[in-house]
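ok trying this again, last paste got cut off
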Amino acid sequence: MALGFFLSINCGKSQTLVIVPEPVVDQVSAISPEICLDSFLWIFPSNPCFWLKAEKDNTNAKTRTSLVYNLSSFDVEFPLGLSLEIDGTYFNLLKLGTEYGSQLQLVSDLPEPVALAISKSNKVSLSYTNRKETRNYNLSSGEVSDLKNYLAKLSSLIKAEPKLKIQK
């Protein structure tokens, strides 16, 4: 009975994509729900989570997609970056930023060729490397399905988003 209760509430895990107008930085963002790796029923995830963020530049309508990796604890080692293994080929992702605090957040570019490779793949692994070690996470078939779904929805959603009207 208790297990059914936890499954039914899904611990507040949202499955909706969020649109965020960001007029100060002249862009619109779309953010996917997070995917937590190797966690038990999304309760107290001890392993990292990641999500996707698509941004549309309000001045030229160019779009960019990022993978945001969130380590659930502070990492004392210097983070070097993220890689994705897609059907046996590794893609090193360009690090766009790192935020330190009670948790470590690493933002990496997810270029169009990598997104296309993900959409055609059934096997994806995520690697996080710091100065001391590399941690590899094989995504389950459900996580790969979610990743493909979020990529497709983010792309169409951000491209359809109208230009912000900003009074300067």
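PB: full thing came through this time. Helices lie at 2-9, 112-119, 141-160.
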